[in-house]
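This entry is set out below.
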Amino acid sequence: MKRLMSICLAVVMMFSMTTNVFAQSIIPAVDKTTVKKGDQVVVTTTMEETVSGVASAEFHLAYDEDLFEFDFDQSVPGECDIAKSGDVGGQTWNGYVKCTYSNTRTAGGTINAGAVLATLKFTAKKDVTEDKEGTFTSSVYTFAKTNGSHPVNEFTNKSISVTVTPASTEAKGYSMAVSGP
């Protein structure tokens, strides 16, 4: 009888130690992979897999401040609200955009696979003098589920690159060739 109880206890302990692993990400996608200085690039962030029971979350999109300026006024929230530096209790942060999700229902909310979290617009800086590659990297800063778990470490960071080029030095307009006798 003791042996049977020991085996049952071992099996119960084994199953209680397993965890759900999402192994998912916030996926950044860009509308173009090359832009000229002064041009705009749109970065859309989407959820890779469906997650339910979400109480709150904070996602970040890091970007190269030497190459891009974040355009808060032209960005569009999706499932998340977008915060700009200085908006949250006067806090300032540089080099990333904060997107927050909150759901106060007892069961929490569901963020579906492919759901657009935010559509963020950036302008390539005008002082670029040579081709440079800039990276946009998504990460999960906080993540709270209604069951009390905080599976931040179950998300992996994802990156996508955009090349910024100097504006063309080629003259725009018409040209004429003149030949003489």
